[in-house]
Amino acid sequence: MSHSKPVHAPQTHFGVVDNCLQVGGIPLHRLAQRVGGTPFFAYDRGLLTGRVAHLRASLPQAIQLHFSVKANPMPALVQHMAGLVDGFDVASASEMRVALDTPMPPASVSFAGPGKTDAELTQAIAAGVVLSLESPNEAVRAARIGDMLGLRPRVLLRINPDFEMKSSGMKMGGGARQFGVDAEEAPALLRKVGALGLDFHGLQIFSGSQSLSVSTIVDAQSSTFELARRLADDAPAPVVLLNIGGGFGIPYFPGEAALDLRPIADNLDAWLPRMRDALPQANVAIELGRYLVGEAGVYVTRVTDRKVSRGQVFLVTDGGMNHQLAASGNLGQVIRKNYPVAIGTRMEAPAGETESVNIVGPLCTPLDILADRMPLPQADVGDLVVVFQSGAYGPSASPSGFLSRPAAAEVLV
Ligand SMILES: *Cc1c(COP(=O)(O)O)cnc(C)c1O
User: Keyword set for this entry (predicted)?
Assistant: First the structure.
């Protein structure tokens, strides 16, 4: 029996013309000239639009889509998303400012995140965005600041659920967490939110991130609906927004495949009528970051040197982990695996002209790796290396100050 090595899902979102990758219909070498240099991130607006349309067509119509801005806070991209989704979730005052610069109404922006300062609470309340309360202390401070401003803060209660999202890339609920209030403590805090006179909007229950398992997502959504139904009895006002989290993953590594939305949609279809009975005024929203934007972006860096060390080929590029930390394997990976990578200026190799290469960034650390012994077309100085699946958690999640090199440009094409 032969075992074949798992390979990356084919990267078919972007076109190839004359051996060169295209982003938004522009050949990569031309785009590099337009940007004025490398490295850069390019996001394809057609792919962003298409991804939202695909979700809308796949999920029940009643499901609202929220974009989690932390996945990609580039202002032009957030502006583009404002015309496509029903709400934004932000996690800092800076993200809130980017969201408020778009046509998205403040009431459709929610602000989550532990440890909000009085200054951040003040900005959010003044703006009229919905505060996702993470603790009793935040509830009390929000009420006090609301009194000072003469405004009634709009609030959601963020719940740390009493279940875990099993096989997700990142668990963010269940067990002891810094996020939200434990489900067991929620009834008391819900009553307190009423007593404090806060304008209660509903619940946010987020259990995890980056899951490619349909059953994990379906189970988490069902547990979330059950929990919301239980908690509604103690709510000080009707739930008008039930944010059930998201967690939809995208395939990054060999052997992974895209999520099948159909069983998820079927489960939502089954739950929506039950939730209409239990919480008649509730709009049900899912919040997604990487699923909306991750596959629409590439990181592009240029080969500046080609060398051989003890029989292995190294392509050295002008950018790496300082811009695309996740692709280097240093953002939460236990065992380093390659992101999908291509030579954007040599997409197809003539027969016999592929080689096994290491692609490394320019930083003085062995952690700065973009590809570890990957079979790729033979490339040389001047060629452009492309890291796919780079539309989410790129520059804003990378240590751009490390080694004091220039930041990467970002363009929406
Ligand atoms: C980070 C985060 C998200 C987005 O996660 P993705 O994996 O990018 O979809 C959504 N909701 C909350 C509360 C988050 O913290």
Answer: Pyridoxal phosphate
Task: Tell me the C-alpha distance between 201 and 241, whole Å.
Answer: 6
Which tokens hold the place of 287? 């919040």
Of 265, 179, 181, 185, the residue nearest 217 (C-alpha) = 265
What whole-number distance in Å separates Cα of residue 378 and Cα of residue 385?
A: 12
3-class DSSP assignment, residue 88: strand
Task: Tell the CATH topology of 73-288.
Answer: TIM Barrel (3.20.20)
3-state secondary structure of 248: strand
Domain boundaries, the chain: 16-43+295-412, 73-288
Pocket of ligand 1 (CB under 6 A): 68, 70-71, 89, 112, 206, 209-210, 246, 287-291, 392
Q: Are 211 and 232 in contact (CB under 8 A)?
A: no
Query: Which tokens is 407 given?
Result: 């930041």
In terms of phi and psi (left: phi > 0; alpha: psi -120 to 50; beta: otherwise), the region of 393 is left
Q: What is the pLDDT along the chain (413 residues), one digit of tens a residue?
A: 445 677 898 899 999 999 999 999 999 999 999 999 999 999 999 999 999 999 999 999 999 999 999 999 999 999 999 999 999 999 999 999 999 999 999 999 999 999 999 999 999 999 999 999 999 999 999 999 999 999 999 999 999 998 988 766 777 777 888 999 999 999 999 999 999 999 999 999 998 999 999 999 999 999 999 999 999 999 999 999 999 999 999 999 999 999 999 999 999 999 999 999 999 999 999 999 999 999 999 999 999 999 999 999 999 999 999 999 999 999 988 899 999 999 999 999 888 889 999 999 999 999 999 999 999 999 999 999 999 999 999 999 999 999 999 999 999 99
Report d(CA 329, CA 358) in Å as an integer.
Answer: 14
Distance of CA 140 to the CA centre of its chain: 30
Q: Which atom of ligand 1 is nearest to the CA of 132?
A: 13
* Smallest CA separation from ligand 1 atom 14, residue: 68
- Give pTM, 2 decimals: 0.96
Q: Which CATH architecture has domain 16-43+295-412?
A: Beta Barrel (2.40)
How many whole angstroms from 354 Cα to the centroid of ligand 1?
38
Distance 37 CA to ligand 1 centre (A): 32
Peptide bond preceding 340 in cis form (omega within 30 of 0): no
The residues, ordered by sequence, that sit 6+ positions from 364 with a Cβ below 8 Å of its Cβ are: 403
Distance in angstroms between the alpha carbons of the first and the last residue of the chain: 46
